[in-house]
Specification:
Layout: E1 10-15, H1 19-34, E2 38-39, E3 49-54, H2 56-65, E4 73-77, H3 92-100, E5 105-118, E6 122-127, E7 130-135, E8 141-147, E9 150-163, H4 171-174, E10 186-194, E11 207-210, E12 215-219, E13 227-231, E14 234-237, E15 241-257, H5 263-271
Parallel strand pairs: 1-2, 1-3, 3-4
Antiparallel strand pairs: 5-6, 5-15, 7-9, 7-13, 8-9, 8-12, 9-10, 10-11, 12-15, 13-14
């Protein structure tokens, strides 16, 4: 399927400080200019496309830094895994040619949203891969977990990962969670080192939570000030956390893709 983006032919190029990323950015900028595109010197929210050069970490930092703008993103992989990336530096010429001809698709990446409520205020957080609730300094944490106000468990252990389908192949997979196909509109609740003893009983495996259901987490009173929240690797600490409500966000991240490699091929090539 061919698409066309409406815009002023302005493109953002974002890169990390890696030497290869900087060199790739220069090559890409020169090639895009040959096709009549304007490369913004600063991030332009009116641009038709944002290109992120680096690894998965650089991609995630970029979408967070610019607050999930509506324009699509695409990645050029100069890092290691590159699960979000569609392009290699060696394929830049082909990318620019296909893009200029409208030979691409736009996919929606589902996001996870958390409302963190303390005794004085509530804060909204958005994640691409996952939101993790754990104890500070690797302390055991005790969390009451409900799904749509139906109590599920009193969790005790290192913490909980709540991942999106895209994030299912990240921290979630390392923690023993399942791989979820990216078009499935679900969240996954995965325990981190759950404790099972005569005193504590916690789920040992991950659970798939469908869209429309909220995960409510209430730290036990003694743990209100030991909660660490990690959003796509960014650690956040709030005092007196009494409740965290997590669900699929109404927002999505738009990603440009060429379908040159399908999802299961990516899984095979990167993990097997």
């Amino acid at each position: 399927m061919e698409n066309g983006l409406q815009g002023k032919k302005i493109i953002n190029i974002i890169h990390n400080d890696n030497i290869r990323s900087k060199e790739t950015s220069e090559l890409l900028e020169n090639k895009l200019k040959q096709y009549g595109y304007i490369i913004s010197s600063e991030f332009d929210y009116n641009a038709e496309l944002s290109i992120c050069i680096g690894g998965d970490g650089a991609f995630l930092r970029a979408v967070h830094k610019y607050n999930f703008p509506y324009m699509p993103f695409v990645g050029v992989n100069t890092g290691h895994l590159g699960f979000f990336h569609e392009i290699t530096p060696e394929n830049i010429n082909k990318f620019v040619e296909n893009y200029s001809k409208g030979k691409y698709n736009i996919e929606d990446i589902y996001l996870v949203e958390a409302i963190v409520c303390t005794r004085t205020s509530c804060i909204e957080l958005i994640g691409v891969n996952e939101i993790v609730i754990k104890g500070i300094e690797s302390k055991v944490i005790h969390l009451n977990v409900s799904i749509d106000d139906d109590h599920l468990e009193c969790f005790s252990g290192d913490g909980l990962i709540i991942s999106t389908p895209s994030g299912s192949t990240a921290y979630n997979l390392s923690a023993g969670g399942s791989i979820v196909y990216p078009t499935l509109k679900t969240l996954q609740l995965t325990p981190l080192c759950p404790i099972n003893s005569k005193a504590y009983r916690s789920l040992q495996n991950s659970a798939i939570i469908p869209d429309g259901m909220a995960i409510k987490i209430n730290p036990e009173y003694r743990d209100e000030n030991t909660v660490l929240i990690v959003v796509d690797g960014n650690q956040l600490k709030y005092d007196n956390v009494v409740e965290i409500i997590i669900k699929l966000s109404d927002m999505t991240l738009r990603k440009l893709t060429f379908h040159s490699q399908n999802f299961w091929s990516k899984v095979r090539d990167r993990f097997i």
